Each structure stands twice: as structure tokens, then as C-alpha cells.
From TrEMBL:
This is BolA family protein. The lineage of its organism: Bacteria, Pseudomonadati, Pseudomonadota, Betaproteobacteria, Burkholderiales. Belongs to the BolA/IbaG family. It comes from Polaromonas naphthalenivorans (strain CJ2). InterPro entries: BolA (IPR002634), BolA-like_sf (IPR036065), BolA/IbaG_stress_morph_reg (IPR050961). PANTHER family: BOLA TRANSCRIPTION REGULATOR (PTHR46229), BOLA-LIKE PROTEIN 1 (PTHR46229:SF2).
Length: 81
């Protein structure tokens, strides 16, 4: 899977104001900023992203995804530092 394909899948299932991906085709690192994360705990945010991937993790199409998730306000505060 390419980073463009993975980005398209995540963006189709989650409204992202910022989405940054890097990886080697199986192991991915993502920074995701979405208003959908408002009021959610970290585990809920990650579950939301995993849900956008459907069975791609179980089928090993995406072997690993490490992510940082932010609301737009958290991202703005983080970027200001």
C-alpha cells in the first residue's frame, strides 16, 4: 500500500484538517488532525482511525500504524510551541 492510498482511505472515513503519513509500505506513522476527535479520549480516537481502515489491519495489508491524533485546537496549540 502506498502512502497516497492510505491517506485516501483515512480521509474518506474521517474529516481531516491535517493528515501526514510516512512509512515503508507496511509500518506507518501518522499525524491526524480532525474535529471528529473533539471530546474523545485517546483510545477512542485511535479506534476511530482503525475503523476507517476496516479489515486492512487484520488482513495485514497495513501491518502497523503508529499515530498521533489531535483536535484542531490541540494542533494549533501544539504548532505554536
Amino acid at each position: 500500500m502506498t502512502s497516497e492510498e492510505l491517506q485516501t482511505i483515512i480521509a474518506a472515513g474521517l474529516p481531516c484538517s491535517h493528515l501526514e503519513l510516512s512509512g515503508d509500505g507496511r509500518h506507518w506513522y501518522a499525524t491526524i488532525v480532525s474535529s471528529a476527535f473533539e471530546g474523545q479520549r485517546l483510545i477512542q480516537r485511535h479506534q476511530r482511525v482503525y475503523a476507517t481502515l476496516g479489515g486492512r489491519l487484520q488482513s495485514d495489508e497495513v501491518h502497523a500504524l503508529s499515530m498521533k491524533t489531535y483536535t484542531p485546537a490541540e494542533w494549533a496549540a501544539n504548532s505554536a510551541q
